[in-house]
User: Which sequence fits this backbone?
C-alpha cells in the first residue's frame, strides 16, 4: 500500500463535502482496496462511508423498496421486507461471492463500480429501479453506460436505490467457479411497464435484450425464449467462455429465470 489520508465521517453532509472536494469514496472496499494495492488507483484521500447511518437500511414505501447505498449484501439477503416483496433480489444477494464478500460488500458500491459481471446491476436494470444520489435521481436505463462506467459525476454519491415491486421476478446465474461472478446472469421481471430482461456477464456491461423482452411479453414462459436469437457478436469471449457459449448461456439462463419466476 502507500500513504493516504483516511476520513471517517458520521454524517451524509460531511461525506458529501469530502467527496465533492475530491476524496475517493470507500463503500465495501471489495474492488477499491484491491485496486489500491495494485496501484491501479492511488487516491491521496479516502472517505469511508461505513459510519454514515443515513446510507444504511431497507424500507417498504408503497409499491417500492428503498435500500440504502451502504446496505450490505448479507442484509439485503436476510431482510424480511426484501424476501416478502422482491424475493428474487434477496436470492441474488445471497448468491454474491462468498460469506466474507457478502458481509463487506454493499449495494451502492457494486452499482457505482458497474463491474461487467456483477449481479446487482442486472437487478437494478431488470426492475427499472431509480438510483438516488446526493444531487439527483437517475433512471436505471440512463445510469449504466458501459465497462465500469456510469452516469455518476465526479464526487457524486449514491445514497439509495428505489426498486419497484414487480408482479414476478427471478435471477439465474451461471457462475464463474473461482470468482463467483456471473459468467452470464439474467434477471427477468414482469413490471408495471412490461417485461424487462437484463443480462450481466455477457459483454462490456449490463444490458437489456429487446428480443427476449418482446417474446416474454407475448408469453411469459420458457418455451417463448427458445426461438429468440442472441447475437454472439455482442458478447465477450475469454479463457472462461467463448462469445458463442455466452450467447447460448443467455438463452439458457433466461429460461431458468422464467421457470423460477413462475414458481
Assistant:
Amino acid at each position: 500500500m502507500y500513504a493516504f489520508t483516511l476520513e471517517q465521517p458520521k454524517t451524509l453532509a460531511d461525506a458529501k463535502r469530502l467527496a465533492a472536494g475530491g476524496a475517493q469514496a470507500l463503500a465495501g472496499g471489495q474492488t477499491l482496496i484491491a485496486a489500491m494495492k495494485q496501484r491501479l488507483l492511488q487516491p491521496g484521500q479516502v472517505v469511508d462511508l461505513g459510519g454514515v447511518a443515513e446510507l444504511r437500511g431497507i424500507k417498504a414505501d408503497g409499491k417500492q423498496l428503498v435500500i440504502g447505498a451502504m446496505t450490505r449484501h448479507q442484509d439485503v439477503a436476510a431482510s424480511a421486507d426484501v424476501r416478502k416483496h422482491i424475493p428474487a433480489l434477496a436470492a441474488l444477494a445471497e448468491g454474491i461471492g462468498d460469506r466474507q464478500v457478502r458481509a463487506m460488500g454493499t449495494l451502492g458500491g457494486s452499482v457505482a463500480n458497474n463491474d461487467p459481471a456483477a449481479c446487482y446491476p442486472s437487478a437494478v436494470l431488470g426492475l427499472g429501479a431509480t438510483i438516488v444520489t446526493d444531487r439527483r435521481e437517475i433512471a436505471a436505463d440512463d445510469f449504466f453506460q458501459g465497462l465500469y462506467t456510469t452516469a455518476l459525476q465526479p464526487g457524486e454519491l449514491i445514497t439509495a436505490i428505489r426498486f419497484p415491486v414487480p408482479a414476478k421476478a427471478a435471477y439465474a446465474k451461471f457462475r464463474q467457479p473461482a470468482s463467483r461472478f456471473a459468467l452470464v446472469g439474467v434477471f427477468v421481471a414482469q413490471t408495471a411497464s412490461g417485461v424487462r430482461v437484463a443480462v450481466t456477464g455477457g459483454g462490456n456491461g449490463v444490458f437489456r435484450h429487446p428480443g427476449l423482452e418482446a417474446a416474454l411479453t407475448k408469453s411469459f414462459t420458457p418455451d417463448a425464449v427458445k426461438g429468440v436469437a442472441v447475437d454472439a457478436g455482442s458478447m465477450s469471449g475469454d479463457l472462461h467462455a467463448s462469445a458463442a457459449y455466452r450467447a447460448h448461456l443467455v438463452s439458457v439462463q433466461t429460461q431458468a429465470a422464467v421457470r423460477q419466476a413462475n414458481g
About this structure: Residues 243-261 form the longest helix (19 residues). The radius of gyration is 18 Å. The chain has a mean pLDDT of 96. Residues 58 and 67 are 5 Å apart (CA to CA).
